[in-house]
Design brief:
The protein is α/β, with parallel strands linked by helices and 469 residues long. It has a nine-stranded mixed beta sheet, sandwiched between helices. Helix content is 34%, strand content 26%. Helix 2 links the parallel strand 4 and strand 5.
Length: 469
Amino acid sequence: MKIPNFSQAKVLVIGDLMLDRYWHGDTSRISPESPVPVVNIQNIENRAGGAANVALNLAELGVDVAVLGITGQDEESEILEAILKEKQIRTIFEKRPSQTTITKLRVISRNQQLIRLDFEKDFALDKPLDIELVKENIDKYDLLVLSDYNKGTLKSVQQIIQLANVNNKKTVVDPKGNDFGKYKGATLITPNQSEFSAVAGETNEQNICSKGEALRNELNLGAVLITRSEKGMALIEKDQEPYLQPTQAREISDVTGAGDTVVATLAATLASGENLITASRLANVAAGVVISKLGTATTSVMELEAAIAKKDGEVGGVVSESELLALIINAKAKRETVVMTNGCFDILHPGHVAYLKQAASLGDKLIVAVNDDASVQRLKGEERPINPLDHRMEMLAALDSVDWVVSFSEDTPQRIIANCLPTILVKGGDYKAEEIVGYQEVIDNGGEVKILQFKDGYSTTNIIKKIKS
């Protein structure tokens, strides 16, 4: 799994902005006024919450992000704005003198939350978000995240979705409430299991996909992604088979903020031009990272790369043909592009390395099929191969561009190509595509055949001649 270049993505987050405040202190006595603990406050911590936390998650991934929402014209709004600007997040606040910025104050002592105090007022009691702010900014961004905490900022969410559709902008919605009809026409909604069940009715392993498709169809949604905690995720996409994946978390410490991380990773990946399968897989990995941490957390590209490296403990490198066929089935189920090439690769040289890099750039997985020793001898003569099969395969498997290496014993790779049926078959040299062994089988299966040019000045034969001279 490859992480896209998130720095090219531009995302506008619209939703309910909040300031999370934490007052930390010691407590050693009970108040004489009432049977409650007395907390001596020693530290005050301010964090971005709600839609602002989604924006922080996006910024942590390197996305060019702005956040739009309603606040009061107060100190809390200034604090929240400062937190976001420190992370280079553009703030578009509709500040209302009649409102107070939504603030959640938690008093913490000895690592325990003693009380939470909420300061909030439904923004829709005054009026919904000024849609002109959306119109003024929508063209600057690739995708809109609508982060709904049911506080009133997105009272006119349908108007925003329609505006996005008219402007060909994707919308990723983190929904709230029992009425998902207000999100009609969105690109993607991301309810968790309980939110989905509250709308679609009681769900189980047998009916979750059918109920997801019914909801998707009823609301004309591009897709529904149901996050299912320890059970992973279920993606129901228009005109595609449902895609189920298990959780990537090895240990679950705290699920706080995991939903924001999932939405942010989905948005960043989609805004980078990737498809929903890739976006959901990366979001699943990101969720696994953050729920392994304590408290509200974000994840970085470096942490994603490390998690993917651990996850990709799948069989790789040198594989048997039966192992390879199973791996191809799994890759195609993930809608990955499988590229395949073949050759003797007797003495690995820079020409081979450049060719294999070019081949790998055409898809997600690269298979190299290698002639066994007897086959090379029949093709090249009694003195070949110089290097035995296991050495040749080991060298190829060590290249970053190569995912799987498999051997075949026939003079041509036609049989193994016909069994594997790659998405793209690649061959180097001066050929016509239809002359390539396996061309017809791949084309008949809906694949492609491509010819790549070898790097000039390199060949195994010339290397051998030079050694002998």
